Amino acid sequence: MLEFIGGLLLEVVEFFVGLSIVRDFKRWRGRPERPLSEDAGQLAMIEWILLPIAGVIAVLIGLGMYAAGVPGFWCFAAPIAGLLCFAFVQYRRRMDL
């Protein structure tokens, strides 16, 4: 139980540190200030909804490639590369960086 509580607290701290880094980065690049709640909502949607769904899709694509007879390395590398590209594009677009 203590491990669960510690993990949950660590996730909350990581979220707020990430949020402050994003806001500082936008301020450094001269972007207009948005409300904290808007930035927090966008970051939460990326971290807790989009990326897990994209991860599941990447695993399914890898399994489909494996079933089709593609070599094992490509079954792992191609979906991961696609997932990283998707995450990068969504993060920059949704966080207005």
Structure notes:
- The protein has 97 residues and is an all-alpha fold.
- The protein has one domain.
- It has three helices and no strands.
- The protein has helices at 2-28, 36-67, 72-94.
- α1 (2-28) packs across α2 (36-67).
- The longest helix has 32 residues, at 36-67.
- The protein is flat, with a radius of gyration of 17 Å.
- The chain starts with a helix and ends with a helix.
- The mean pLDDT is 91.
Walk me through the topology:
Layout (H helix, E strand, L loop, with lengths): L1 H27 L7 H32 L4 H23 L3
Write a brief caption for the model:
The protein is mainly alpha-helical and 97 residues long. The chain is 85% helix and 0% strand.
Structural class: mainly alpha
Terminal CA distance: 38 Å
Number of strands: 0
Radius of gyration: 17 Å
Mean pLDDT: 91
Low-pLDDT runs of 5+ residues are none
> What's the story with the biggest beta sheet?
none
User: Helical element count?
Assistant: 3
Spell out the key features of this protein.
3 helices, mainly alpha, 97 residues, 0% strand, flat
